[in-house]
Specification:
CATH class: Alpha Beta
CATH architecture: 2-Layer Sandwich
Helix content: 40-55%
Radius of gyration: 14 Å
CATH superfamily: STAS domain
Distance between the termini: 36 Å
Length: 124
Amino acid sequence: MRTPTATRPPPKVERTGNVTVITFTADAIRDVENVIARELEGHAAGGAECHLLLDFINVKYLNSAELGTLVTLHTRIRDAGGRLTLFNLGTQLRRLFSITRLDTLLAICREDDGAERRAGSGVS
């Protein structure tokens, strides 16, 4: 059973330079679209390339609409000259991305450490 939207905490957002890390709270991916839109607008206004890291440590599953949102987000960020990286996906989510072949489209790291290394090295 899902937590009512009104009582669900928002995703945690951390910024360092042009890198933004969004950590989803339980079920927060369903609410993250507006948070991400604000982050993208903020980076676009500065005219700088951005790297958005999405931390899925608290996400256990995604539905097809949420997968579609990630694909749209990937396209928007890429078109704006930025990068999107997903990390801390559990076994079930990694399997879902593999089955849907989204792991060939989206940059996915297995651990927080790997995502931060990629952000610092400029590798997407």
